[in-house]
Amino acid sequence: MTTARRRVLRPVRPDGGDGARERKLAARSVRLAMEKQCLDRWMSRLKRAFHAVEKQQGKIARLERAIAQLMKKSGT
């Protein structure tokens, strides 16, 4: 006759061992807040740079059109 399998009994974790987990969680929360703040700063810089580039592209396009019209009128 076969015997039933036994369950492996592991010791129960003590409740006081959760302090390391709490410290890691707190440290990562602080780091997350710092990284979000850094990303916000970069995003504002990126937006300013993007709009500056758009403005320059508009100026260049207008100048190119004006030159093309002058070339067309002069017949060359």
| Cα-to-Cα separation, first versus last residue | 106 Å
- How much strand? under 5%
Shape: elongated
Low-confidence stretches: none
Query: How many helical stretches?
Result: 1
The portion of residues assigned to helices is over 70%
The SSE string, one letter per element, is H
How many β strands by DSSP? 0
Task: Give the helix/strand class.
Answer: mainly alpha
Rounded radius of gyration (Å):
33 Å
Task: Estimate the mean pLDDT confidence.
Answer: 90
Give the biggest sheet.
none
Describe the protein's architecture and organization.
With 76 residues, the chain is mainly alpha-helical. The protein has a domain at 26-74. The chain is built from 1 helix and no strands. The protein has one helix at 19-74. The longest helix is centred in the middle third of the chain and has 56 residues, at 19-74. The protein is elongated and about 105 Å long. 0% of the residues are buried.
